[in-house]
Amino acid sequence: MTDDRPHDAPLDPAESLRLIRAQQERARSATEPDGRLLYLAWGVAWLVGYLSLWTSARQGADGQPASWAFAVFGGAIVSAVAFTIVHSVSRTAGTRGVSARTGMLYGWSWMLGFVALAAVLGGLARAGASEEVMSLASNALACVVVGLLYLGGAAAFQDTRLFVLGVWILLVAAVATFAGLPLTYLVMALLGGGGFLVMAGTEHLLRVRRRRLAADAGPTGRGATTEVADA
Amino acid sequence: MPDGGLDPVIHAPARLRVVATLAALGPGDELSFPKLQKLLDMTAGNLSTHLRKLEDAGYVHVTKTHEGRTPATYLRLTGAGRAAFEAYTTALTTLLRGTAS
């Protein structure tokens, strides 16, 4: 490869390994969504949204949250959805193949799950479900959809921590429903939103540790690392 | 053989960066030419030249397709390319240990 020199003179081994590591890190962060940011967005959305509902429901005479609280809740959830879509789409743009297809099917699963949920809730309301039942059912069923999709995502992306989060959200669904209104909202805020924030912190600590360990070891192909596609 | 038998196709820094980038993706994943170019900060002509050498060596698979009416090029590492990259990094690590001890 003498034709490449002098622009492309080979590096010494240590320099080459550093170059590979830096380049791979850059490639991963440009092609995979950052799980820490997604968990943080959802943690904040649940915490702010459900704390508003809880605060408002406690103040109200009929135990139901006021419309401002529903507006805050809706705004928080819509913001988190928008952030998730924009972040995931922009990170994975320009990629094709197995991971892109897995991600697309996973994204559609979320969409379809919540469309079906909305239809079910509409049906329950039409059948005469009380305001209390509607509140409990919408929180619980949303949690069940989220929890199950995390379990499926864990299987698709081989992400054990995502599986743990899915189990946790399913537990939150059960606990929140039995807690009863307005305590349901507090459970969703602290255990649900808190769960996401704990995940964001865990992912961050693991990444810092992995980076430190990688500084001592050589780079590897994707299959040999513990790096996984985040939700 | 000079350089302790390091693969001459990958041994040039520019091609090493190309291969390292593609190896960071999953085995079934492809990267578009513009995204690869952006990740490497190379000119299109320079990247094309290196990709041709990697393709000739059987390390990179090039897919030319259309997205709507726009032509698009996708790159992925072949099995041989992934194996060569792993052999290369193993050789580097061995060399590094050799000089350290």
What does this structure look like?
The complex is a heterodimer of chains A (231) and B (101). Chain A is mainly alpha-helical. Chain A is 77% helix and 1% strand. Chain A has 7 helices and 1 strand; from the N terminus they run αααβαααα. In chain A, helix 2 packs antiparallel against helix 7 and helix 5 packs antiparallel against helix 6. Chain A starts with 12 loop residues before the first helix and ends in a 17-residue tail after the last helix. The N terminus and C terminus of chain A are likely disordered. Chain B is an alpha+beta fold. Chain B has a single domain, classed as Arc Repressor Mutant, subunit A. In chain B, 57% of the residues lie in helices and 20% in strands. In chain B, strands 1-3-2 form a 3-stranded antiparallel beta sheet. Chains A and B meet through helix 1, strand 1 and helix 4 of A and helix 1, helix 2, strand 1, helix 3 and helix 5 of B. Strand 1 of chain A pairs antiparallel with strand 1 of chain B, so a sheet runs across the interface.
- Note the beta-strand portion of chain B: 15-25%
Beta-strand segment tally of chain B:
3
Share of β-strand residues of chain A: under 5%
Largest sheet of chain A: none
Number of helices of chain A: 7
Taking the alpha carbons of the first and last residues of chain A, their distance comes to: 43 Å
- What is Rg of chain B? 15 Å
> Any idea what the CATH architecture of chain B is?
Orthogonal Bundle
CATH superfamily of chain B, called what? Winged helix-like DNA-binding domain superfamily/Winged helix DNA-binding domain
Strand order of the largest sheet of chain B: 1-3-2
Order of helices and strands of chain B: HHEHHEEH
